């Protein structure tokens, strides 16, 4: 290695290293940029805290235990779907078929239980297998056919929603017609005035599992390495194709579990929901500090991002804001989060 690549050598009598001088010359904004780059969870936590404080002034009902329990129930489905989306985005991909896979899986589960008379557990398992297979199909097209993730998932979005209409015949299956296990995830139990559902418990367990898997396993390190620089990861000996295929497959599995949570949340399986799930899941991921360019982010941040979306929607509803302007606010939040992400990525080493 040459002296130039190593940088100037500091001596006791010589000047301070340039890096130290540069850091001392940083403006407060540049220091904030470095902090957010090193601790990506801090930004989302600050936004969540500020939103909670702001909406507590908008409505006296906002900070009540009953309302906070409602927020948790409202964000559960989006949080689960955003978890799968996080895995894909960490590899520098994107999944536009999130909602289609979740809704189609829920329809498969419901129709197997009602039309074919399968018991609840086999119907659930069959739906989960189908959702996993849909994710694997995305992974096959991305890794074997080498199609861009955006194009692949845009195409499968239409395919899965179309199949969803065919299988469901555009009819909603009521929860009362299904085995009780199908709607169990929507069952709530009280903790004082706070009501938590079993679906929320499943959601928190999933986040805990993937926090460990991404942070403390070889698979997790390979996911980050592939998203950060796929060519460098390949040269380092990582089978990037296998990593990508596993990520899309696991994401499909997570979406299918989200389908079970969705049935419990709605107390039905409806083919007419899920249109906003793509935008909301991506918004939660980006607000949580995961870079759309891959290789940087935490699943804990995604959970915080989903809570930010839920707090904004709930707070705006309590404030009497029209649903149209709620969508406007969420879209604006997404643009701001992506802009901040771009700014953070420009941090100087």
UniProtKB/TrEMBL annotation:
Location, primary (coarse class): membrane
Subcellular location: Cell membrane
Keywords, alphabetical: Cell membrane, Membrane, Transmembrane, Transmembrane helix
GO CC, any one term: plasma membrane
Membrane topology: Multi-pass membrane protein
Spans through the membrane: 41-58, 70-90, 96-114, 121-141, 147-167, 196-214, 243-263, 284-312, 324-344
InterPro entries named in the record: ABC_transp_permease
GO molecular function, one term: transmembrane transporter activity
Region spans: Disordered: 1-22
Name of the protein in question: Fructose transport system permease protein
